[in-house]
Specification:
This protein is mostly beta strands. It has 2 domains: 43 residues; 213 residues, Porin, CATH 2.40.160.20. The protein contains 2 helices and 13 strands. A hairpin with a 2-residue loop joins β1 and β2.
Length: 274
């Protein structure tokens, strides 16, 4: 019951207009305050959301950070965009992504109980750095209370493939009960499963990187959700193709790869502003 109506009801039911003493006045004030307390508390707790999505508001700039997983690895990305129209955004992106062959199998040397796992036959660890641009076309805008915004995007640009040679710990017997372990670059012609103790450190071979420039193209479908216009969150699914004129060897005794096709799923969060 609201305070004015409650007070009117209380006064209208007073039996007589006789003067009230101090105790009666205190009781009436306390009853009125108790009746108003729920309304006061509700108004004190209610704070209008300053960042709900308003109708027909166009922000000029945006950026986003994202984490992606794909059929052959994982990656990180950064995007920056500017709105050209209410339904079209021009995007720039930089992305780092790992790539592993579908033939990779992690194994252990069964003759040494403390051996480390490694991928037998892998000659290079491959990753890509992509820098490109493209467009995002919004198929439907979210209503003012939130929901899901659906967009399609297509992007392309230059890519650089990094091939780091694989280093392994190789076992060299000294005597019947003694052996020596050395860190060496994997050579499939001289290193065999019985001689490999395990993988070497991650930084081994970093100074022997080979670079493979090329181009890439991607197409995706983005689902932006939530009711925050300034703090968007989105899921994106799509496909990406890297093309390298200089083939990259990944597995021993397999042909060098020039085409790298992956299907990906990414989650991004960022900010919109003017």
């Amino acid at each position: 019951m609201n305070c004015p109506y409650f007070y009117f009801y209380l006064c209208s039911t007073t039996p007589s207009p006789q003067p009230m003493n101090r105790v009666q006045v205190y009781l009436i004030v306390m009853v009125i305050l108790l009746g108003c307390l729920p309304t006061i508390t509700a108004r004190a707790q209610y704070q209008p959301e300053p960042d709900t999505l308003p109708d027909n508001v166009l922000t000029e700039k945006q950026w986003a950070l994202g984490l992606l997983i794909h059929t052959n690895g994982w990656g990180l990305k950064f995007r920056y965009g500017t709105s050209r129209t209410a339904l079209r955004v021009w995007l720039w992106e930089a992305e780092y992504s790992t790539y592993k062959s579908a033939k990779e199998i992690r194994v252990l040397n069964p003759y040494y109980p403390n051996s480390k796992s490694y991928i037998y036959g892998k000659v290079n660890s491959v990753s890509f750095l992509r820098i490109g641009t493209g467009q995002q076309y919004i198929l439907n805008r979210k209503p003012y209370w939130g929901g899901v915004q659906l967009s399609i995007l297509w992007m392309g640009g230059v890519t650089v493939g990094f091939a780091k040679p694989m280093y392994l710990y190789i076992i060299y017997p000294i005597s019947q009960n003694e052996y020596e372990i050395k860190e060496e670059r994997y050579d499939p012609a001289n290193h065999f499963a019985d001689d490999i103790y395990g993988r070497a450190s991650l930084l081994a071979g970093i100074l022997e990187l080979s670079f493979h420039p090329g181009i890439y193209a991607r197409s995706g479908l983005e689902f932006e959700f939530g009711n925050k216009n300034k703090r968007p969150k989105a899921l994106e699914v799509g496909a990406c193709l890297d093309v390298s004129p200089i083939g990259i060897p990944i597995m021993a005794y397999n042909p060098k790869q020039n085409l790298f096709l992956t299907l990906y799923l990414s989650f991004t969060f960022g900010k919109r502003y003017n």
